[in-house]
């Protein structure tokens, strides 16, 4: 069995720990008494959000510099804009479809090793970020500060992007590249399950 590099070991440990923490928080239902905490856990609660946000970091890592840092910055910035639209009640059609499609499209881009120019990748990621942000904004609990909530969901999203980037370190080997592409396929399947109402 081949030895894993330090980066690969970090990648192999990061995602399971984040997902374990997410599930622990989701099942207790305790401690969500501030806008920040509610916003932080909101993107981590739903697998439709989780797979898309991990995919952004993973695709960025697959594309390499500068995408590895640009895409995970573009997504939360544009997501915050979409969240503001949701808080203001500005309607955007087919929000849930857009969220589900983000998993399908981003997963397929990874699975088929698509190397898009950075501006194309940023536009794709930004477009899907609007749907995710709008959903967060419209679901803002009335009792919480929208500012704390927005900061919380940007931080939670950033951690999911980092998990994707960590997984992207596996692309240092041929077996790792295949694992990353396989992960993209799984992400696309999860997105399709939400798209067709199977999840």
Automatic annotation (TrEMBL):
The keyword Signal applies. Residues 1-26 form the signal peptide. Keywords: Membrane, Signal, Transmembrane, Transmembrane helix. Coiled coil: none annotated. Pfam families: HupE_UreJ. The chain crosses the membrane at residues 44-62, 94-113, 118-135, 147-171, 178-198. The keyword Transmembrane applies. It comes from the Bacteria. This is HupE/UreJ family protein. The lineage of its organism: Bacteria, Pseudomonadati, Pseudomonadota, Alphaproteobacteria, Rhodobacterales.
């Amino acid at each position: 069995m081949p030895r894993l590099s330090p980066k690969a070991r970090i990648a192999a440990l990061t995602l399971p720990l984040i997902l374990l923490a997410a599930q622990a928080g989701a099942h207790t239902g305790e401690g969500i008494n501030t806008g920040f905490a509610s916003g932080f856990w909101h993107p981590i609660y739903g697998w439709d959000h989780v797979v898309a946000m991990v995919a952004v970091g993973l695709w960025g890592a697959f594309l390499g510099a500068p995408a590895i840092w640009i895409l995970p910055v573009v997504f939360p910035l544009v997501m915050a804009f979409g969240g503001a639209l949701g808080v203001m009640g500005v309607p955007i059609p087919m929000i849930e479809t857009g969220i589900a499609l983000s998993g399908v499209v981003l997963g397929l881009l990874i699975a088929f090793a698509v190397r898009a120019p950075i501006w194309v990748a940023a536009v794709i990621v930004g477009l899907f970020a609007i749907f995710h942000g709008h959903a967060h904004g419209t679901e803002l609990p009335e009792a919480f500060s929208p500012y704390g909530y927005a900061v919380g969901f940007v931080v939670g999203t950033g951690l999911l992007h980092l998990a994707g980037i960590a997984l992207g370190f596996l692309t240092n080997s041929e077996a790792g590249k295949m694992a990353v592409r396989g992960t993209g396929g799984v992400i696309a399947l999860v997105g399709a399950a939400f798209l067709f109402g199977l999840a």
